[in-house]
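assembly run, all chains below
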Amino acid sequence: AQSVTQLGSHVSVSEGALVLLRCNYSSSVPPYLFWYVQYPNQGLQLLLKYTTGATLVKGINGFEAEFKKSETSFHLTKPSAHMSDAAEYFCAVTYNYGQNFVFGPGTRLSVLP
Amino acid sequence: EAGVAQSPRYKIIEKRQSVAFWCNPISGHATLYWYQQILGQGPKLLIQFQNNGVVDDSQLPKDRFSAERLKGVDSTLKIQPAKLEDSAVYLCASRIIAGGSEDTQYFGPGTRLTVL
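ok done. output:
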């Protein structure tokens, strides 16, 4: 069964510092990979997704992620954190696009002034 | 464009009571998902509809949970009877099958259920 792990349930960074949120997945077949952001009392919003093609994916709000097949990873980065980035971030995987989405447990990002 | 609508936003019930949640997807979205998100965890897929047919309900506790999507538009998720462990946020999402950047899930704000 497919699964997703996110290292670090809570990450704190200073404003302007690099953001790195880790995601690893289990896979025996090529996956489709997603990062979502969830603000308090709101639903999830797609940040970016990898389906095929270029392994470096750029998303909204300055975030990007790189699919590394050899490491089964899809880490999320942003060069400079902003206070408005404070939220919960979820990595998700599916092997049959549109079905059987599996979400990771989430990482809560705090941005310190 | 209106987003995915859900109601109610909050619900508090006693255990063994019944509860129902409603979802109105984005117009034209054929696929609809219900997720359960327990505090501190990621969303877990409960059921997926394609128009008014069920695509996947393998993780739906069918002894107490039921869902329907009559006419392939709105959907209702019901719990009867509720247990303490059903306390969670219930998220609805919809998706248009079009390929490209717009082919993604759009989530509603969720219904927060507290079972006492």
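The interface with chain A takes residues 4, 31, 33, 40-45, 48, 55-56, 91, 93, 95, 97, 103-105, 107-110 of chain B (CB under 8 Å).

The longest strand of chain B covers residues 88-95.

not gonna interpret more than that til we talk
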